[in-house]
Amino acid sequence: MAFDIDMIKKVYATMDKRVNKAREIVGKPLTLTEKILYSHLWDGTPTKAFTRGKDYVDFAPDRIACQDATAQMALLQFMQAGRDNVAVPTTVHCDHLIQAKSGATEDLKRANDTSKEVFDFLESVSNKYGIGFWKPGAGIIHQVVLENYAFPGGMMIGTDSHTVNAGGLGMVAVGVGGADAVDVMAGMPWELKFPKLIGVKLTGELNGWTASKDVILKVAGILTVKGGTGAILEYFGEGAKNLSCTGKGTICNMGAEIGATTSTFGYDDSMERFLRATDRNDIADEANKVKSHLTGDPEVYAKPEQYFDQVIEINLSELRPHLNGPFTPDLATPVGQLGQKAKENGWPIKVDWGLIGSCTNSSYEDLTRASSIAKQAVDKKLKPKSDFGINPGSEQIRYTAERDGILKIFEDLDATIFTNACGPCIGQWDRSDVKGDEKNTIVHSFNRNFSKRADGNPNTHAFVGSPEMVAAIAISGRLDFDPMNDTLINEDGEEVKLEIPKGLELPPLGFEVKESGYLAPTENGRSVEVKVSPTSERLQLLDPFEPWDGGNLTNAKLLIKAFGKCTTDHISMAGPWLRYRGHLDNIANNTLIGAVNAFNKKTNFVKSQLSGEYGGVPDVQREYKKAGIPTVVVGDHNYGEGSSREHAAMQPRHLGVKVVLVKSFARIHETNLKKQGMLGLTFANEADYDLIQEDDTFNFVDLKDFAPEKQLTIELVHKDGSTDTIKANHTYNNAQIEWYKEGSALNLIKKENAK
Fold first, then answer.
1. Which of 46, 121, 316, 371 is the most buried if burial means most Cβ atoms within 10 Å?
2. How many angstroms separate the CA atoms of 22 and 37, rounded?
3. In which family does this protein belong, per the annotation (predicted)?
4. CATH architecture assignment, domain 322-430+437-482
């Protein structure tokens, strides 16, 4: 039986009235996305049509999901909100703080020892406030959500950018910062700019070596890492119906890599099969009652150009397997063409590791397709030339795969079965085979492959592919291997060819698990004590940020002018820094240490205008804070792309940075800055980025008149006394300006709850 079935029944009970009213107001047939959005308005039944890409709208999400790294800060904030219980169903999943090294048993034991303080905190705070808790080893948040909580037509937010994975089960599921989640936990609406809509029409059927992963790898190549910004992708067509539910999840999951707000598919037979296979017949039965509202109207899919802002069409029958990378998930190359491309660019051909799993590709189907290739290697006497690592998506999948002999096939190839957790995908990988900054290549089925992402080595060239393609390439040990056409030499000196992978959508014997790892909260948590030691290095209770004084901001100094790509990994690195995600002051010591200084092309090396000396970014910023001097960070395009981590906004705020001025923002990061009381601005003229000099002082001469749709004027005072005046745009509405005035959105919530 499903979790929260009564809540789901209520969603479906209101859907008919709300969708029909929305269709009447909009005056035309509706996409699936519009049906879900209009049926989740904070004010209930729709009363007006919203303009895509312009109107800010308040929504009422059905549930929230948090992973352990981001849950710490989210729940530390929620503890200040003045409530006894979360307002909507919420879960916490411990999947990020488990380092992959030796194998599941040893790695999980070590994580439970080293992060006991954090896990105990998360368990106790969950128990106190009515939050479902999934223990370390229970699984990766997004796979666990897909198996237990996602439902067609629902709306969910989560404190991880890959929350979008639940679109595979027909949800509008959006990754947000912890402050957004706190709003909803505290009974407040969730605000989102009404998204634009990109329709992706899928025709044909996957065949041969091509997998669901190749759909999103192809889309990423078309749209690039920022092409989906401000938009929801809606997949439709006969090709979409031909995909498995978990395959749909894979496609939606990696939509985060193109900047999309989220992605989704209409309810179909594959979703019903998955719901019933995961013991949720009750949801399937209820969904079938409102089936017409759980997909787009027929007129929309018949003439998509009239209803979407952009339409992409992909014939699955003609789609070829891809590998994307290195260093960016949108550099798409069909397998077979990669060898020549690698030679031209000096990418290492030898592959050292093949990694299968992550929230993107760790389903039962994924493991069976990859294991079908691994089984061929065993049977054909092929000894893998690369190391293998496997991360199952959940304990349910791991247990079922072990029962069905799937994991043993990998073990016969000397693969390491890691914990049911994120591991190498988020930099939680104690990799011992490469020392220092050695240039090397790995292939994986993850979603991101930014520099330093997996192992901290800037020279690790990571390529993203399907699990079965990763398995084939790892067996060959070569990036230029094309399993569709090339052969391999086995241990007997024979020339052999890998056959087309085969997989099972769902386990024939059903899913099975002995210990899922779930802990339900106590009914009344008022007596539960949440302890945070004042001397802890891992956890720190929060102090409110100071409110705005209402005046202009003057004499602000440049902290860093970031050059090129500056993701949340550059602003607040993961890996070993994950241990400090609950301690704002300690984790602030990694602030912007990965950003490239535009003036010397070095990382973590900026000039202090106080001393004239160069130092690390956090060190220089702490000098400015001690002296009471405000600072500005300047950035390039798509600043803050990547993870939803709000630490990338909270850390600069904590250290005294007042403004982030860039060419363009990634959506989640811009919202996070607003929530934390920061000024997030964009150059009205992008060329003005070039006017910023290393010793500049910034005067925001009309900030006191801060208002929606009103540009701000900035006076740049250069070292030689000369000045430039530039204009900056912003997207703050009246409500968001109130956040800024109060010092943060949380300050405003506390103020409202105190009335």
1. 371
2. 10
3. Belongs to the aconitase/IPM isomerase family.
4. 2-Layer Sandwich (3.30)
Q: What does the pLDDT read at residue 378?
A: 96
The yes-or-no answer on residue 637 being catalytic is: no
DSSP states of 684-726: SSGGGGGG--TT-EEEETTGGG--TT--EEEEEE-TTS-EEEE
- Superfamily of domain covering 5-196+265-299: Aconitase, domain 3 (3.30.499.10)
Q: pLDDT > 70: what percent of the chain?
A: 100
CA 465 – CA 671 distance, rounded (Å): 31
Q: How far apart are CA 610 and CA 619, in angstroms?
A: 12
**Encoded amino acid at 489, one letter:** I
Spatial separation of the C-alpha atoms in residues 162 and 173, rounded to whole Å: 9
Q: Is there a common fold for 5-196+265-299 and 322-430+437-482?
A: yes
> Which one of 643, 653, 688, 696 is the catalytic residue?
643
Going by C-alpha positions, the residue among 178, 73, 104, 98 that lies closest to residue 422 is 98
Return the residue matching tokens 């943060």: 744
Helix, strand, or coil (residue 620) = helix
Q: Is residue 379 among the annotated active site residues?
A: no
Delimit the domains of the chain by residue range: 5-196+265-299, 322-430+437-482, 556-754
Among the residue ranges 98-102, 120-124, 431-435, the one predicted with the least confidence is 431-435
3-state DSSP call for residue 269?
A: helix
Write down the catalytic residue from 18, 40, 93, 96.
96
95 carries an active-site annotation: yes
Average pLDDT over residues 178-200: 94
pTM for the structure as a whole = 0.88
- pLDDT-based confidence at residue 179 (cuts at 50, 70, 90): confident
How confident is the model at residue 1, as a pLDDT?
66
Cα 321 from Cα 334, distance rounded (Å): 6
Question: Residue 445 and residue 676: Cα distance in Å, rounded?
Answer: 34
Q: What is the DSSP string of 173-236?
A: EEE--HHHHHHHHTT--EEEEPPEEEEEEEES---TT--HHHHHHHHHHHHTTTTTBTEEEEEE
Surface-to-core class of residue 276, CB atoms within 10 Å of its CB (0-12 exposed, 13-18 middle, 19+ buried): middle
Q: Which CATH number fits domain 556-754: 3.40.50.10540, 3.40.980.10, 1.20.1050.40, 3.20.19.10?
A: 3.20.19.10
With 0-12 / 13-18 / 19 or more C-beta atoms within 10 angstroms meaning exposed / middle / buried, residue 491 is exposed
What is each CA distance from 598 to 252, 334, 552, 565, 688, in whole angstroms? 35, 34, 27, 11, 14
End-to-end CA distance of the chain: 40
* Residue 752, pLDDT score: 81
Q: What's the CA gap between 584 and 591, in Å, rounded?
A: 11
212 is known as an active-site residue: no
For the chain, give the mean pLDDT: 96
Cα(468)–Cα(503) distance, integer angstroms: 10
The active-site residue, picked from 62, 68, 95, 180, is: 95
Q: Are 714 and 728 in contact (CB under 8 A)?
A: yes
For residue 745, what are the CA distances in angstroms to 72, 80, 312, 581, 749? 18, 12, 38, 20, 6
DSSP secondary-structure letter at 677? T
CB 596 within 8 A of CB 603: yes
